[in-house]
Design a protein that fits this description.
five-stranded antiparallel sheet; alpha+beta; globular; four-stranded antiparallel sheet; Jelly Rolls; 9 strands; single chain
């Protein structure tokens, strides 16, 4: 069902993930969802939408407030800050928009589809409203996923800093570790 978003986007989304076994099977193949058992995955999909974007469409706008976390199913997403490209998200299962779940602040960067793109969008408010064992399980799994992703991003940024700053940065880094 088409949905009109801020900025005139004509992104398409569906709420019917549970009924689409093909989509469920594709999502199960994504390593980041490996920690979820069948019941947890179905609970997650109840809180999710599959969103389809055309190349050039905005997914997230810097400084806006929303509650969505995105997992790339396929396509390519450009992350930019103040109009300057920071990075590209290209790997299936990569996450973006996760900082909203961690700190509830306005979006720190924009994300747009660089090619036709499909994302699994999860409403973080639903996760925050879970109770009991579900809340604990989802919180643990998601924070573990976020930790792994953020650690990888930090490693990449450190390598880039060393490359840009040269040997002096490498000496500083050696003192810090």
């Amino acid at each position: 069902m088409p949905a009109q978003l801020a900025g005139g986007s004509n992104m398409k989304e569906t709420n019917y993930l549970i009924e689409n076994e093909k989509i469920i099977e594709e999502i199960k193949k994504i390593p980041v969802f490996g920690p979820f058992n069948e019941e947890e995955l179905h609970t997650l999909l109840h809180m999710s939408k599959l969103r389809v974007y055309k190349a050039g469409e905005d997914i997230i706008k810097e400084s806006e407030i929303d509650s969505w976390i995105y997992f790339l199913i396929y396509g390519k997403v450009v992350i930019s800050k103040e109009g300057k490209e920071i990075t590209q998200i290209k790997r299936r299962g990569d996450i973006f928009g996760e900082m909203r779940f961690i700190d509830s602040a306005p979006r720190s960067a924009s994300a747009s589809a660089a090619a036709d793109t499909v994302c699994l969008a999860i409403d973080a408010e639903h996760i925050e409203n879970l109770t009991g064992d579900n809340k604990i399980a989802f919180g643990y799994i998601l924070y573990r996923i976020f930790s792994e992703i953020l650690a990888e991003r930090l490693r990449i940024m450190n390598k880039e800093l060393i490359r840009v700053k040269g040997k002096n940065a490498e000496k500083v880094w050696e003192r810090l570790t």
